[in-house]
Q: What sequence folds into this?
């Protein structure tokens, strides 16, 4: 499945990147993800697992924004994710290999983000339980989870989260 | 030959900026060893999602002391590498370089 996902560029789904807040409502109408999936329809058995996103959550773009991230550049803080819709996320995950073949898929769960979440946000709890990843990591750079020791060593030395490294690097 | 993070980063400079934004690695022109990855990613920024580590995944992502094996969250102090001196490398890494 990984090799066939090559043809799917993330740019095909990025029509939302330039959209302003007022367009969000319209985007949610087409949130079924059909323009993205194209010829690769979701297998039926996974469709049944998809939970519909509560509409009120999508509508609340005026939710209070997390504070305490003034040290992060505004373009990072204001960048929302297309994957606020679990349908859209799942349609991508159906054709993108995220967890390596030799590892149980049960090591992680891949979840959509909420409207107010930003890639630079932390856990704000005692223990770190999750991290963010870009779909591009898997669909185009062929990163697989879990990371190997070398990858984690580089991240540790640079002291950056996986999404903090620019993908052109 | 073992891939070594130190030896790998020897070939790069990082330029952390304030306020913090995506960190770019720039290859050091004089000693560029690796072909630059020329494909440009213009649209990666709006495609992030959450990876939640489940119980079965903990050994892959956490150390024994329950610290994470790499930063899970963005940090405001990425390490700045500029012209890393080869003396900083270990003996093994020097052989790699």
A:
């Amino acid at each position: 499945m990984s090799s066939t996902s090559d043809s799917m560029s993330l740019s095909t789904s990025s029509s939302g990147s330039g959209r302003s807040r007022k367009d969000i409502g319209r985007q949610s109408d087409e949130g079924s993800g059909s323009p993205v999936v194209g010829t690769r329809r979701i297998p039926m058995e996974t469709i049944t697992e998809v939970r519909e996103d509560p509409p009120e959550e999508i509508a609340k773009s005026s939710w209070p924004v997390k504070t305490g991230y003034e040290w992060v550049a505004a373009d990072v803080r204001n960048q929302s994710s297309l994957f606020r819709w679990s349908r859209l996320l799942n349609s991508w995950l159906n054709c993108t290999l995220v967890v390596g073949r030799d590892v149980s898929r049960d090591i992680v769960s891949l979840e959509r983000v909420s409207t107010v979440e930003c890639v630079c946000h932390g856990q704000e709890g005692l223990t770190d339980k999750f991290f963010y990843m870009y779909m591009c990591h898997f669909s185009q750079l062929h990163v697989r989870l879990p990371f190997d020791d070398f990858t984690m060593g580089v991240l540790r030395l640079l002291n950056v989260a996986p999404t903090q490294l620019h993908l052109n690097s | 030959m073992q891939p070594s993070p130190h030896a790998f980063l020897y070939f790069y400079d990082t330029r952390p900026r304030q306020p913090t934004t995506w960190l770019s690695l720039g290859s050091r022109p004089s000693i560029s060893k690796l072909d630059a990855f020329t494909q440009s990613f213009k649209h990666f920024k709006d495609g992030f999602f959450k990876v939640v580590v489940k119980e079965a995944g903990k050994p892959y992502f956490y150390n024994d002391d329950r610290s994470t094996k790499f930063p899970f969250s963005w940090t405001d102090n990425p390490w700045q590498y500029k012209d890393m001196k080869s003396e900083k490398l270990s003996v093994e890494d020097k052989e790699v370089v």
In short: Chain B touches chain A through 53 residues (CB under 8 Å). Helices of chain B lie at 5-10, 58-61, 91-96. Strands of chain B lie at 12-14, 25-27, 48-53. The mean pLDDT of chain B is 80.
